[in-house]
Amino acid sequence: MSAGAIDATLVGELSRIVGEAHVLTDPEITAGYVVDWTRRFAGSTPLVVRPGDTAETAAVMSVLAAARVAVVPQGGNTGLVGGSVPLGGEAVLSMRRLNVCEPVDELATQVTLGAGVTLADAQAHVAASDLSVGVDLAARDSATIGGMVATNAGGINVLRYGAMRAQVVGIEAVLADGTVVSHLAGLEKDNTGYDLGSLLAGSEGTLGIITRVRLRLHPTQPERATALLAFESAADAVRAAAALRRSVASLHALEAVFEGAMALVSSHLGLAPPVGSLANDGAGNSDGGAAWLIAEAAARTDPSDELGTAVTELDDLVVDAAVALEPAARQRLWAFRENVTEAISAAGIPHKLDVTLPAARLAEFTDGVEAVITAVDPEAQPLLFGHLGDGNVHVNVLGPGGAEPADEVDGAVLRYVAEMGGSISAEHGIGTAKLAELHLNRTEAELAAFGAIKRALDPAGLLNPNVLLP
Ligand code: FAD
Ligand code: 2HG
Ligand code: ZN
User: How far is the centre of ligand 2, averaged over its atoms, from the C-alpha of 287 (Å)?
Assistant: First the structure.
């Protein structure tokens, strides 16, 4: 259905809508659109179309729908579950040219952004009004607002502001047949029926093409204090995280890096962790080698006393701590968390299992998951880190020499998560990577409801057909 229907007439029709320069068919040029960020998922496409606005997106979709061409919407292509690349030979609809930042609505503290605006550009745009976007993540220079809504992205500030869905106060999208649905008034109270913004958030390109998003904004919190804390056990880190969440009202981020991931990122950066020591440093130290937490407080007035007091009250739980206030010093601490994904990618092609555990099972999980993995693939190397404040652990698994681990590792870890009452996808989505395991978290009745919604909005199944829905 996808490749066969594309001929010169169709390419001509699309070129008339978006301009010849924005219909790409040369495999050398389309190559950048078919492999995902991790390099684990690679497909092929006969066609990449790059519309410039909503009207062009709608016209392109009606042409593709009439020709029954399946489509993968793509933003920054930083997604980590294989959902943004054409694994079944689909056309790619690249949304990056929809990059208009409309003026900040200072009275409503909201802004309307094109789907292709990068998070970094959105952050810079609203910072001029002393406001900030509620979601922040390390892929900010490439990840787009449309992609972030489509995945309901989480990131480092979820414990304060919620994930992307919680930021959306209005949405505009193009449906599979080219119809535009637009609801961008951004009224905080608006009970006039189904909330399409909520439905499209987390829909991973399967229900509609997001073209514009209206986001709620938050007052900037310019005064910051950041602590890096080392622990001898995962259980101590989990207990400390719970205590910090209760005692630090200005808590802005609460992140974790476990031993294997800390060893890898330290070696990638060429720096030893500023506190605690790595068990494999050859020195035989035991002063905190199991887990590290980064706790950041942010407020309009200096939050360092609040954070400092809370850290002191952790007492014997913490083996060692460093606190930084100046941006450069804080960034030096953050480097050990923000660069983990890049360090893993430099080491090989991981399987990424992004999961949430109930607080009561978190430490048991982080202690037990290595045995679950090595029982399936004895040579696999687990690397754990994540957003501990949200109960969200990123389990990355590398095979020997950086190769992929055995495929069975994924199912084993995700079953372990489900048995503990957790979620098999905390923030990255299901994509194609976790399709086979979705049933672990969703009942047959729920999956049937998903299917009914999909058929209602995309009866021909043209939007991202290899993603999310079994
Ligand atoms: P893409 O990767 O292009 O697409 C992702 C999905 O959204 C696909 O299914 C695609 O079809 C769909 N899509 C894209 N644009 C649209 C649109 N306009 N309309 C409809 N569907 C669309 N994620 C987190 O949640 N938290 C993190 O902390 C985090 N950190 C990251 C750090 C790094 C270094 C990297 C590489 C990734 C990280 N991610 C994180 C994952 C990724 O950045 C997010 O999933 C992000 O939301 C993807 O945005 P994108 O524009 O790159 O979307
Ligand atoms: C993060 O929190 C991202 O750094 C990426 O969600 C996680 O690489 C990963 O598995
Ligand atoms: Zn994350």
Answer: 27
